[in-house]
Write a structure and sequence with these properties.
Rossmann fold, 8 helices
Amino acid sequence: MKNDKDLFRFKQFTVSHAESAMKVGTDGVLLGAWVDYPNPRNILDVGTGSGVIALQMAQRFPAAHITGIEVDEKSAGEATGNMQRSPWAERLRCIHRDIREYARTTPGKYDLIVSNPPFFEDDLPSQNPRLSKAKHNINLRFEELFDSIDRLLHEDGMFALIVPWEKRSKIVRLAGEKNLYCHRELVIYPKASKNANRTILEFYKTGAICRKEELHIYTEQNQYTADYRNICKDFYLNF
């Protein structure tokens, strides 16, 4: 029997994250709610963790088959259980594998690839090795991630990820080296009086002018903004 603190309940599914190295959080849910692509058939969630983004993709895109890939064995096992208990079990699967190996050996291509990747590359790693692997890219550099995306993404497919705002320029540069170009970006602010701290970027293999949008999560009175509620309204119970 799971404790309530080990479960995160959404409107159409429930996520157990007791065993996952990374818990359900704002970053992943926001990525899963905001990113958009017309009628994807095959979706890949890189670093799926507990499987929350993959489950969001299954809810949003009823014709899509979604694969989550996760290098941490316990997280992959928990994601598999979450997927099997969901209403969309027949369209979901989780693979316990390293994305670099998967990209080298998988001939298939994906219409949409999403990722909430490890990005604390300059910070002191956690003393917990599983958490360290999940949060820090000591085992997967951004260059390697983009190389894998280049191999796996369909020619007219899209790759979307969420990263710290201060990493934005580096990410765009590295993506460009693999001929991936930003078409749309969501710059995320905790509130209007704070600096941006996250950004979601959507990349395609064709060049374009990047269309920027902004989002404030909280009002100055520490209430969720109407824009944030609107983006996440299909998922959070209290929205």
